[in-house]
Structures are given as structure tokens and as C-alpha cells.
Amino acid sequence: MTIIITGKNGYVAQRLNTFLPDSETVSVKGLKKEQFTFLESKEIVIHAAALVHKNEKDQTEDAYFEINTNLSYELALRAKQVGVKQFIFLSTMAIYGDEEGQITKYTKTNPITWYGKSKLAAEEKILKLQDEYFKVAIVRPPMIYGPSCPGNYAMLRKVSRKSPVFPAVDNKRSMLFIGNLCELIYQIIQYQDFGIFHPQDPQYIKTSSMVKEIAKIHKRSVYFSKLAGKLLKLIIGNTKVFRKVFGDLYYAKGLSAYRDNSYQKYNLEQAIAITERTK
């Protein structure tokens, strides 16, 4: 089984390449469809390359749709033309917007960022290519974390290792450890599955619980203040920053169910231990 993973310099692509046998990574940045020669003789394509939301302020809307939508579709179309059997597209939870609360199978997509809109547009176009010979799997992960990961986890790690106090806010979020994502992708390939997948860790994550686990690994004591949590919510509770760190946003358990859920190999404590002890 031969696997090509796009996004050579990306965090997810690099981890998948390490995890999956017979795989290799490529960069598709700046390539035209006639340059997709690396697809030939491949059975599986995992498209992890994307223009991500953290760069949105420095990009244009056209750039997001050109890379995340048009390039993704052209890649999938060419993959189908050369006989690739399965196309796995890494999408995002952002297609549901930033609404708080639980996401169920009845929740409508409502992206509000260029990143989310361009990813949803790509999903819709790529799914139309599916037939009995070309299977399409769409994966919509929540926030991904793991060893050396970028993003919000790095910020929480810094706070956990330096601050003696952290706001205690009783929130609930879906997150996904990179090891669990890799296992899910592996199983989708092994079972030749297709459709839309909403993976998450086996338990919902409370921000303060994650900070507590990180601090514990480094033998640090952090005081979790309910008063600080109440004050923070009172002062900035309506801001995007507060919702992103302390808000509720999670997939219903049934939505993330996949076979026997054996892809959820690691719980929070195990995932944090691996993340903090792996350089």
C-alpha cells in the first residue's frame, strides 16, 4: 500500500508520515495540476496541506479559496484520474463557526472565517468526485495537540510552567491528541472507509484540567482560583479570546463514534505525559 501525504512541512503531515508505513510527504505549494506527477502509482492520498487560520490577517480571501478549495479539488480530481483508490481530506471543526455548545449531527455548517469557508467549499467539491472506485473520507478534527505542536497548546504549556495561579472555569471542549488522529487515519485506510468523520479524544477537555496535567508532569503546583475565573468571565466573557480558551465547544459523543472507538488510544493524562516528555 503506497501513501502520499501533502503538507511536507506541516505538523500533522510529519506525524502521519512517521506513524504510517509506506508513506511519504510532498509539498504542493505553488504547484499546478499538471505537476501532480507524484500521484501516479499511489493508492492513498492524505491531503493535509492548507493555508491555516492563524495566518488569516496576513492573507486575502482569494488566497484561501485558491489554496484550500481549488488546489484541493484539482488534487483530488487528478488523483481520481490516475487511479488513486482513497482520498482523505483533512478538514476542520471551523466549518461549524464559533458557536458555543454541543455540535450534533443536526448542527448546520456555518463557517465564519475564510479558513472555515474555504475548507467547507473544498469538502463539497471533493465529495462529488466519490464513486465506487474512488473513496473520499473527510476528517473534521477539533484542536489538535501533541509533542512540539504549535498553537494554543503551546500557550497553555507556558502558563502551566510559569504561573502559580490559573482561572478555574468549568468548560467543556473537544480536542484531539495527534496519536489518536494518526490511529483514526490508519483505521480509515485499513478498512477502506469513506464519509465524514468527527474525531475527538475519549473525554471532553476542561482547560484547567489540561493545565493541571501539564503542571503535574513538571512537578509544579498551580492554584486554580474560582474567583479569578468569575472575574475573568465578567470582564472579558464576551470576547473571542475568552470563548476560544474557556468556552464550550464540543462534538456529541455519538458524532465522533467510529467502529469500536479503538482510535481513541490515549486519554488526557496519557496524551499530556507523551506530549511533555517527548522532545
Question: Layout of helices and strands, plus pairs?
Answer:
Elements (H helix, E strand, L loop, with lengths): L2 E4 L4 H9 L3 E4 L17 E4 L13 H21 L4 E5 L10 E3 L10 H14 L7 E5 L3 E3 L6 H11 L2 E3 L7 E3 H13 L4 E3 L9 H11 L5 E3 H11 L3 H7 L2 E3 L16 H10 L2
Parallel strand pairs: 1-2, 1-3, 3-4, 4-6, 5-12, 6-10, 7-9, 8-11
Helix pairs in contact: 1-5, 2-3, 4-6, 6-9
List keywords for this structure.
6-stranded parallel sheet; two-stranded parallel sheet; 38% helix; 9 helices; 279 residues; globular; alpha/beta
3D structure, described in words:
With about 280 residues, the chain is an alpha/beta fold. The chain is built from 9 helices and 12 strands. It has helices at about 10-20, 60-80, 115-125, 150-160, 180-190, 205-215, 225-235, 240-245, 270-275, and strands at about 5, 25, 45, 85-90, 100-105, 135-140, 145, 165, 175, 195, 225, 250. A 6-stranded parallel β-sheet has the order 2-1-3-4-6-10, sandwiched between helices. A two-stranded parallel ribbon has the order 5-12.
